[in-house]
Please model this.
Amino acid sequence: MPQPDALLMNLPARLRQLLGNEAVLDDPALLAPYLVDHRRLYQGASPAVVQPADTAGVATLLAFCNNEGIAVVPQGGNTSYCGGATPDESGRQLVLSLRRLNKIRSVDAAGFSMVAEAGCLLAQVQQTAADVQRLFPLSLGSEGSCQIGGNLATNAGGTAVLRYGMTRDLVLGLEVVLADGSVLSTLSPLRKDNTGYDLKGLFVGSEGTLGVITAACLKLFPAPQSVATAWISLPDPTAALTLLGRLRAASGDRTSSCELVPQVALDLVLQHVPGARDPGVARAPWYLLVELSSPADDDLDALLTTALSDALEAGLATDAVLAQSATQRAALWMLRESVPAAQSRAGGSLKHDISVPLSALPQFIEQGSVLCKELAPEGYLVAYGHVGDGNLHFNLNQRDGTDEADFLERELPLKRAVHDLVASLGGSFSAEHGVGRLKVGELERYAPPIELELMRRIKQAFDPLGILNPGKVLR
Ligand code: FAD
Ligand code: 2HG
Ligand code: ZN
Model:
């Protein structure tokens, strides 16, 4: 085997020979955006970004890298939050961009399925489904830039999990290139297949550490014909959960989204996001954005109006507005989806992507708020998110006039206290953003030893030489 440095020097040229000119970027200016993560927590280095045109190209690359002992970091839209798609600082890891595998291979409207390549943008998958009167329900603020392969690799959540589940629940089959370049293809649209272990399930949420997803057979649903959306003022999170329970029962489980937004988050959006307009309801400590949808021509506005007037009478809500048009609906959603952007424009932030059982959520918010005040006095809490799934983005922003370095120094003690509280309530320190590089230590701390041991054995079985995204998920 050649010396690693000689190998690295000649690497771009050898990769060009293998995969063609267009598949290899090594100009530093072109590499730059692939070497830093979305949150700018990590700045990596790499000899090249490789962007094969098809599955065969990915297989050729991995077989080569496995032989030569070269690490590969798969990257989709590079929107993830835990540094999973960024190479380390050594300059020895290749980035494998799935960007050019961007074809929809087939759509079967009658069979409610679609085969999409990993590099298709999520928005492209959604639009392709809509074009044949079907719904692909995964919905995230980053849908215009994240890829379906990245969604699968992180098992992304988003705003429709309440009704349709996580990405894991939306996949029928996968095509995956394994570390040695062999291709596992289970792209069949079968909904029932109990023949042995669920291998494809292992790759969902594995963050590029077990194989490279090159295509997926996805589940489609009937397209909604009626939709009703409301922005609701609330006294507290307990009222939000009671109201959600009533809505789910009253709507026959046609409640598809239930997002909690505190006043402080709405203020940040109105201040920092051009085009954001106040929803026009009475000010309140908390708001709920709820959406009902149905594939039939139902009068969901009437249903929601009745449920909301009952809630007003019961003191569960203090005001509400219903979207009267698609434009108003989009404006309400824009307020919710813009919270991450508003938070980052407002200065330094600390983030916790936690989930607890629904019944423990009010207790978590109460005790967690006290911890934030005690352990990060330079910050203020901006806790929002997918409350219907028990998942909150329990984030903090830096107060005006405080020192950013002082604030960011609070990260470790605060994280420990928040995650310990989450664990004591039977929750998770990463509800939907994964582990990546950022939360490897948290996984080691909170996962039961038997789970960690099984994960290590699985990693060893799928990637014995450790070339796939080393240092992510597992150390
Ligand atoms: P990347 O960031 O490129 O990669 C993520 C991980 O997957 C890395 O470990 C990478 O190595 C691996 N990977 C990527 N592609 C492949 C592949 N083809 N095969 C194997 N491994 C691969 N996330 C949520 O869950 N819910 C949300 O509501 C949500 N909202 C967001 C809103 C905004 C504004 C932003 C910026 C992000 C949000 N995210 C959310 C996080 C992010 O968008 C999702 O995690 C998304 O699924 C990542 O997809 P990506 O293509 O950008 O993946
Ligand atoms: C969301 O739900 C995303 O908006 C991002 O998951 C959360 O920025 C965050 O913490
Ligand atoms: Zn989220």
Summary: The chain is about 35% helix and 20% strand.
